[in-house]
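input
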Amino acid sequence: MIYVVLGMHKSGTSFISQTLHHSGINMVDEVNRDLSYDQGNKYERESTKALNQEILCSEGIHSLNLSLPEKLSVTKDQQERMQSLIEDYDERFDSWGFKDPRTCFTYPFWEKVLPRHKLIVVYRPIEELWKRYRRSRKVLFPLNAIQLVKRWYEHNARIVKYLQQTNIHYLILDYSLAMREQTEFNRLQRFVGARLNDERDTRLYRGRGGKYIFLTIAKRLYYIQRKRSVDEMVRHLNVLRLKQ
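output
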């Protein structure tokens, strides 16, 4: 089986990929257990990540600046390389997959060339991401907050759109619950159909939520300007998750 993990940056995709990889589902080309998440070990498959960056022209772009282009397409060469990678991994592994937050934007192109596969979606409250992002760049907090609201909504709105249109079997996980409770981890095990190594590390569960003035203002401004509500999107994701 092939597993594609979808979720925004810092939303728990690395945790999912790490768990699958160390449970016998190949998720990365190479992995160094001695390197931590903070040292760059994000459990991303470099080959699929590189193709995503090429399609989005996003190499070197900070994740807060990576927005969905108005028009997005793949060349014949890029599609052929996608197919070649898939054939190679299919030949080498019984179960494999990949994660890269950029796939939130490029998944329709992968879906066209992938054989039977499953989607694992993971989301996280924006308040928790804010504590991770607010000092991530040497700019004023308000700018970070505005950019985060835009990116969070874009990534999760795209995911919801895919889920509404696809017949692919999928699972939606709440990262915060997964780190605090056993229920979400058990749901992941049932979805995969195997006992998984528990790779949760509460030391890496940082940026737990709270109320933040800059983020609250940014969310309100985004709603006024675009009529898009982050809080409503969270409720929608929760409803979809609870229906499973």
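quick obs: The longest strand covers residues 117-123.
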